[in-house]
Amino acid sequence: MLNKFTLNNESCEYTEKCCRRNSAHMLPVTDWLSDIPQDLNENDLVEVQFKNTRKGWYHNVNHLPLEKGTMVIVEANPGYDLGEVVLTGRLVPMQMKKYRIDTDRYEIRPIQRLAEEADLKKAAEAHAKEHETMIKSRQLAKSLGLEMKIGDVEYQGDGTKAIFYYIADGRVDFRQLIKVYAETFRIRIEMKQIGARQEAGRIGGTGPCGRELCCSTWMTNFTSVGTGAARLQGISPNPQKLAGQCAKLKCCLNYEVPVYEDARRRGITLGTPVQPEEVEQDLGFQNAVGEGDVSRFDRKKKNNRNHNNQRRNNNDRNKNNRPDHRG
Questions:
Q1: Which terminus of the chain, N or C, has less C-beta within 10 A?
Q2: Which of these three, 89, 105, 125, is where a domain ends?
Q3: 92, 147: one domain
Q4: Read out DSSP for 74-109?
Q5: Strands 161-167 and 80-88
Q6: Model's pTM, two decimal places?
Q7: pLDDT (tens digit, 9 = 90+) per residue, 188-226?
Q8: What's the pLDDT tens digit per position in 4-29?
Q9: Is there a contact between 21 and 216 (Cβ–Cβ < 8 Å)?
Q10: What is the domain range of residue 255?
């Protein structure tokens, strides 16, 4: 079976190019039913992930021996696409339910075959053109005066189609833009609008916590974040501290909200342990001989002055008491 564990070095290089920032770099779904024996004919649904967080569900109609990490060729419209299997078995229908996939409306296409070295190489060549295509597409959109930004470009595995991910504040009429793109790049064009959080996840970066952004490492779904989450946790309502690199509220504000809500229902006050402040003993100035009072120099000068005055007075007194030998 051809998968990422049995490919040679050359094919592994193609796999890395085709699936960079793919599920290999995201937090995988834990298949907690994998050790339970099951009939392959019971469920043929497979979850396949493509570049970044784009996923799809397919039928394993040919009963291929699939496992997590297997590179497969799936049917696309038009042509075919290259993806990585990230989940199989009974857990796939549960994932579809989690993502609210309506099986009556969602077209579930079949998996055609296992990927071969030629497929990986062709996909890598197509993905190598994505950055140049993105730069050129931004220039074309600007020349047409459209208020939009092309955030990313994703080529299909066979190189005949590309998805242009764009960001815009309002509605954009890009019918003329699609014609220009098709004439320039000679491929089928699909426009897909994304938000600021999705753009940050695709670009990546480092957060104020010092770790890589959650949206670019393990998060695959984005939920709305409100200021109520910050108030519930007693966080200072400072916009500069609450906003992430996407200029939206940080996703991590939602991480501990259920804990605080549960504590409020139970009437529990949450807090952090405070260490007692250590009282530092003021030793003052210390020198090599252990004398701590720097005023000792003043006392010494004063004592010397008094001693000199007393000696001068004694000399004058002795002089006055000296007998007179004059005749």
A1: C
A2: 125
A3: no
A4: EE-SSSEEEEEEEEETTHHHHHHHHTT--TTTS--E
A5: unpaired
A6: 0.67
A7: 999 999 888 888 887 788 888 888 888 888 876 778 888
A8: 444 444 555 555 555 544 444 455 66
A9: yes
A10: 201-266
